[in-house]
Amino acid sequence: MVLNTQIELTPHSSPNVEITTFMLTLTSMKSCKTIFKCLLLFTLWFNHSYLAAQSKNKDKQLIIFDTDIGNDVDDVLALGMIHALQAREECQLLAVTITKDHPKAAAFTDAVNTFYGYGEIPIGVCNSGVTPEAGKFNILVDQVEAGQPLYPHEVKPRDAVTVLREALANAEDHSVAIAQVGFSTNLANLIKSPPDQISDLNGRELVEKKVSLLSIMAGAFQKIPDADGNLRDHREYNVVKDLKPAIFLADNWPTSIAWSGFEIGLALRYPHQSIEQDFDYNQHHPLKDAYYAYNPPPHDRPTWDLTSVLYAIRPERNYFDLSPSGKVSIDQNGVSHFDAHPEGKHRYLKLNDIQKVRTIETIVGLASQPPLATH
Ligand SMILES: [Ca+2]
To answer: How far is the CA of 182 from the centre of ligand 1 (A)?
Structure first.
């Protein structure tokens, strides 16, 4: 449900002039109830003005979110973070494409988009047969109260490759960042796609022309402790669940790739206190309700997918360090390998102790930001 207290605002209007106007209007009101409501409206409006002023003169980063939403809840928090950055006018979400092959994934995605005021965003789905089960929280979209859906949605998903080709064909050259936080099915199929009525370019040419960066949550670039504490090569979930497309993507994707390995999200755990306390501005919040359905507090979920989104939209804020340039490859066991090479287009994210502190604080602040009226 979208907050019904949203108000239409001029994105870059002058806060001082409008504060004065607003306060004059406020003082003319006689009802305490009305004044309270107006104070709430004012708070939302002022927050928007402050956030918009922060991002003034910055170009919006166009972004596509490719997700296996429903298999883990970090995808949901990552989508919330994208909407927070849209409200701040830092990015524009062109499309969401889904690599979890279950119809409720698109429905739940649309419910989250609708909650944040972006129900018109195109959604693409796959036909891969990968993770076909419903999962723990996408089924929330079926819940009703007093005959009304708790999470309104009206999804009309289409083929993911079609949605991706349309989004890219309509964009400026080298303007689109893609955050892939699930399996590699859709993007592998995209670069295999032939020219069509959408574009004279084949998929690989279209990506090369339109995409600036692929920010991907996959692989591992450190040894990871197993259940007994022994350090092992890690067969990361997004890779091993759909191995062939992951191998193909690593070897054939034509643009730069920033890899957020398993160790990055693991080092930045989402504090459960935020889930318990920061989302109560709405009685039925899809992020909070999904988190509880998946693995409730006091569990602190790793922020795997959120790190890829954050880097895709704010690559220059020093939230992460980068490895040298090189090439990532995936072996037949699903283990990722990095070979440094000065001409390589791949880098992987790294974290130091100072970055850990400010990066998790940023992630929490963005993921828990309420919807703001910006369009
Ligand atoms: Ca995911």
So the answer is: 4
Cα–ligand 1 centroid distance for 331 (angstroms): 21
Angstrom distance (rounded) from CA 148 to CA 20: 40
Q: CA 224, CA 334: separation in Å to the nearest integer?
A: 14
Tell me which residue range forms the domain holding 42: 15-54
CA of 221 to the centre of ligand 1 (A): 18
- Whose CA is closest to 59, among 88, 37, 27, 31? 88
Residue 375 pLDDT greater than 80, yes or no: no
Same domain, 66 and 177: yes
pLDDT > 70? residue 31:
no
> For residue 162, is pLDDT > 80?
yes
Distance 265 CA to ligand 1 centre (A): 11
Q: How far is the CA of 74 from the centre of ligand 1 (A)?
A: 6
Given a cut of 90, is residue 14 above it in pLDDT? no
What's the number of CA atoms in the CB half-sphere (13 Å) around residue 251? 10
Shared domain check, 139 and 31 = no
Tell me, yes or no, whether 2 lies in a domain. Answer: no
Q: Are 75 and 19 found together in one domain?
A: no
| SS3 of 261-306 | CHHHHHHCECCHHHHHHCCCCCCCCHHHHHHHHHCCCCCCCECHHH
Between the CA of 69 and the centroid of ligand 1 the distance, in Å, is: 6
Q: How far is the CA of 79 from the centre of ligand 1 (A)?
A: 10
